[in-house]
TrEMBL record:
Signal peptide start and end residues: none
Annotated protein name in UniProt: Exocyst complex component SEC5
Region annotated Disordered, chain positions: 303-324
Record text on subunit structure and interactions: Component of the exocyst complex.
Role according to the record: Component of the exocyst complex involved in the docking of exocytic vesicles with fusion sites on the plasma membrane.
All copies of domain Exocyst complex component EXOC2/Sec5 N-terminal, residue ranges: 4-831
Cross-referenced InterPro entries: EXOC2/Sec5 (IPR029175), EXOC2/Sec5_N_dom (IPR039481)
Keyword annotations of the record: Exocytosis, Protein transport, Transport
Length: 838
């Protein structure tokens, strides 16, 4: 201290004023001098004012001292007070003996009264560790009764305020002060403070236990976001040392990432288990059986649809996109109850995607909602942290949200190989190239199932991405989802197109040669192909038109399909059509092999009299199929494609029609050629090789048998054609008549001369054929018959007999012709028109 005798000015300046400037020290010295001078002046003024008092006091002291000397009051006798002190000590001893117990009891009573006063005044404080706080918190944790919790918090804050005030802590928050119901006054002893410290220590133990319980509740991932926000606020109220908001975000992030990986692994196990039950080797027969079953389910679903969606080949409706173009696939989709191993595999793949999407949809919005609250500083006041201190956590929040999205995208991209934009190609033994389909496809996956489940997967991804758009993720987190969506759309459309083309090459294997009840002029294969082709094109349209929602998309409305998608799908549309047409030709010339022997008995009953092992029957049915394909199926499919994809395919349709016409001519001419060879042999044998001497033959009496035989061959052809393809009868017989007329012309031209009888006989036979087949006479055949008559006239030798008899002989030939026609009316009734049969 400055007033102490041992005070050292140098040390004082060195320790206290080591950083004080010289000017400040000079000013301080001047201030000290002025202070000392003022105190000296005040002391002088005091002495001057009270001088007479000092003199009087000095005289009194001297007088008392003189009296003490005169009465011998020395130090040895305690200046005369010894006897008095002894008497007082004796009185004090007696008083303590008499009044000591009473005073002691009084002190105890005062202590008890003081303690009771403290206990009564701060009863809530002492009840905190014993029952009240613990009861309210426990009751809250079990029942979530927030009024009870508020009561517990209010008592906790009052106790905290009381304890801090007791310890002289003036930095008490407004929230704590407002929690006090009235102003408390303090006048407690150290003992009371120790009691308060012990009570508060017990309260702290309870609060720590409660904080631990609340943190465990906060780490529970299955609790709702509202409950977790309340839990975070509860922890803030309990003055937790941890940041509960960050604790929740961190634990929730780890749980979401872990659960997403577990869900993916579990989905992979289900997929592997389902694939294990499938045949590992690729087989066109197995795939065709699966495709046939899938198309049958499409037909059943389409027939149950009350609204016309274009499933019927003969309908005049709707575009390939269906209602709205992007939804409603389940309305015509594969039945979920179909229990094949391939369907189970596809369902496992779909469920894996749906599980990951559902997990992201359930967890990410809540996670990002709390992250935004954390980023926006909603919890800054409660934690007392500044924005700068939380900047790293804010960045981490954004990073965690992006990591969750990236993990979702990465898992799906890895499984479906979305990063490989182009499918690999391998060279086969015949030097041809074959596209290698991705390994995630089930073995022998048919294009209907591929289209169905790819569309569902893309739709699920689109719904998930669009839902995530609504939560407004920060930074480039949402771009990861839109990128995933675009890669999935392209990959799935690409794979579908390759499967579409592949299955079209073996689609002919689905032919069972059963006529379509709705279109009996063709087999059921065309209806299957129409539904298959349309479904693949429609599914590709739906995938190509599904997009993630962006701000631009919302403003511009529905996007048109990109040109790259249109070109890819268009190419597969045409390629699969050409492949199907090639398969039809292969069907006609190859013997029938049942796709499934177990169904053959039932199919044979449906075919009735159709001989599927006869190449003639197969060619006729194929020609009829080509005709229906040209007139109806292709035009309808192309029209639907143009309406959906908003492109022109006029030139492509012309090319397709030209190809169909070429195939039609190849097949039909092959059939007619083989029948014409039979007739040619009969005609040639009858005219040239049967031994008839056309120069010397007698007058005709009947039509030669070879003419009946040739016509009966045509009757057999008529019966064969009418049994399966009645609409081809006129075309077949007309062409056969033209060929037969040519054969007759060639044969008669080889005869050098005709006599009267020969000329009349030839005329009778040609006219008999002419009139019998008049319904099928074409300009070409008519011209050929005219040439035959000219040939007969040219080769006839009129000198053989008198020309006067010619007219009478011709009349006789007419009579024979009428007689022959009447006698064969039953045999050749099939050549007459319906009205002539009456």
């Amino acid at each position: 201290m400055v007033g102490n005798k041992s005070f050292q000015p140098r040390q004082f300046l060195l320790q206290v004023h080591k950083n004080t400037s010289y000017n400040d020290l000079v000013r301080g010295e001047e201030h000290l001098r002025q202070g000392v001078d003022q105190r000296a002046e005040a002391l002088k003024s005091l002495v001057h004012t009270n001088f007479d008092r000092f003199v009087s006091a000095k005289n009194t002291i001297d007088h008392v001292y003189e009296e003490m000397k005169s009465k011998q009051l020395n130090e040895d006798q305690d200046y005369g007070t010894g006897a008095l002190r002894a008497a007082l000590e004796d009185a004090n001893t007696r008083a303590e003996q008499i009044y000591g117990p009473i005073v002691e009891r009084r002190q105890r009573v005062d202590k008890v009264r003081s303690t009771l006063t403290i206990l009564q005044r701060y009863k809530f404080f002492f009840n905190l560790p014993s029952t009240k706080l613990l009861f309210y918190f426990t009751f809250f944790l079990k029942k979530y009764i927030f009024s009870k919790y508020d009561t517990a918090i209010r008592d906790y804050k009052r106790g905290k305020y009381l304890y801090q005030s007791l310890n002289g802590n003036e930095n008490i928050g407004d929230e704590v002060v407002s929690a006090m119901s009235n102003t408390e006054t303090f006048g407690m002893t150290d003992l009371h403070r120790k009691v308060f410290e012990k009570v508060w220590a017990e309260v702290n133990k309870i609060v720590v236990e409660l904080q631990s319980v609340l943190l465990k509740m906060l780490a529970d991932p299955w609790r709702s976001m509202d409950e977790q926000e309340k839990t975070i606020n509860f922890l803030f109220d309990l003055d937790t040392t941890k940041d509960p908001a960050w604790f929740y975000l961190d634990s929730q992030y780890l749980w979401i990432v872990g659960l997403m990986k577990e869900t993916y692994e579990a989905g992979l196990e289900k997929i592997k288990l389902a694939m294990h039950s499938l045949e590992s080797e690729e087989s066109s027969i197995v795939r065709s059986l699966s495709l046939k079953k899938a198309i049958a389910q499409l037909s059943s679903a389409a027939s149950n649809n009350t609204k016309n969606d274009g499933s019927n080949i003969n309908s005049n409706s709707s575009g390939m996109g269906g209602r709205g173009g992007s939804g409603g696939i389940s309305s015509i989709g594969i039945s979920a109850s179909s229990g094949g191993a391939d369907i189970r595999t596809w369902r496992a793949i779909l469920e894996m995607v749906q599980s990951l999407s559902a997990l992201l949809h359930r967890c990410l919005p809540d996670f990002w909602r709390l992250s935004k609250a954390f980023i926006e500083g909603k919890f800054v006041k409660k934690t007392g942290n500044s924005n700068t201190s939380n900047s790293s956590n804010v960045d981490q929040c954004r990073k965690m949200a992006r990591n969750i999205v990236d993990l979702y995208s990465s898992l799906l991209s890895t499984h479906f190989g979305l990063d490989e934009r182009v499918l690999p190609v391998r060279r086969m033994a015949d030097d041809s190239e074959q596209t290698v389909l991705p390994s995630f496809l089930p073995p022998n996956a048919n294009s209907i199932h591929v289209a169905e489940y790819f569309t569902r997967i893309v739709a699920d991804l689109a719904n998930c991405v669009n839902d995530m758009h609504g939560i407004h993720l920060a930074g480039d987190a949402f771009s990861g989802l839109t990128e995933l969506m675009e890669k999935a759309r392209w990959k799935f459309v690409d794979v579908l197109c390759k499967c579409w083309e592949r299955d079209a090459k073996t689609f002919y294997m689905l032919e069972d040669w059963v006529l379509d009840p709705e279109s009996p002029q063709c087999t059921g294969l065309l209806k299957r192909y129409y539904e298959y082709h349309k479904f693949c094109a429609r599914s590709a349209y739906k995938m190509a038109s599904l997009m993630a929602v962006t701000d631009d998309a919302i403003q511009q409305g529905r996007h048109d399909i990109g040109s790259d998608y249109v070109e890819k799908i268009r190419s597969s549309f045409l390629e699969s059509t050409y492949a199907f047409l090639d398969g039809l030709v292969q069907l006609a010339f190859s013997d029938y092999v049942p796709l499934n022997e177990r169904d053959e008995l039932m199919l044979a009953k449906k075919r009735d009299k159709i001989d599927v092992h006869s190449m003639d029957i197969r060619i006729l049915l194929t020609v009829s199929n080509l005709s229906f394909m040209r007139s109806t199926v292709m035009r309808k499919l192309v029209l639907l494609f143009e309406m959906a994809y908003k492109c022109s395919m006029e030139e492509d349709l012309k090319t397709l029609i030209d190809v169909v016409d070429q195939l039609d001519r190849i097949l039909f001419n092959d059939y007619v050629k083989r029948k014409s060879l039979l007739i040619k042999d009969i005609i040639r044998q009858g005219i040239l090789l049967s031994g008839i001497d056309w120069y010397s033959i007698s007058k005709p009496t009947e039509v030669h048998s070879f003419v009946y035989e040739a016509l009966m061959t045509l009757v057999m052809v008529h019966a064969q054609v009418s049994s399966v393809t009645r609409q081809l009868i006129h075309r077949a017989l007309s062409l056969l008549l033209e060929n037969m007329a040519n054969d007759c012309l060639e044969s008669f031209r080889q005869v050098e001369r005709f006599g009267m009888g020969g000329m009349l006989q030839a005329t009778l036979e040609i006219e008999f054929m002419h009139q019998t087949l008049s319904q099928y006479l074409t300009p070409t055949a008519s011209e050929t018959l005219h040439l035959i008559y000219q040939t007969l006239e040219y080769a006839y030798n009129p000198q053989q007999q008198h020309s006067g008899n010619l007219q009478s002989e011709l009349n006789h030939v007419k009579e024979l012709l009428v007689f022959s026609r009447k006698s064969t009316v039953v045999q050749f009734l099939c050549f007459k028109q319906n009205k002539d049969r009456r």
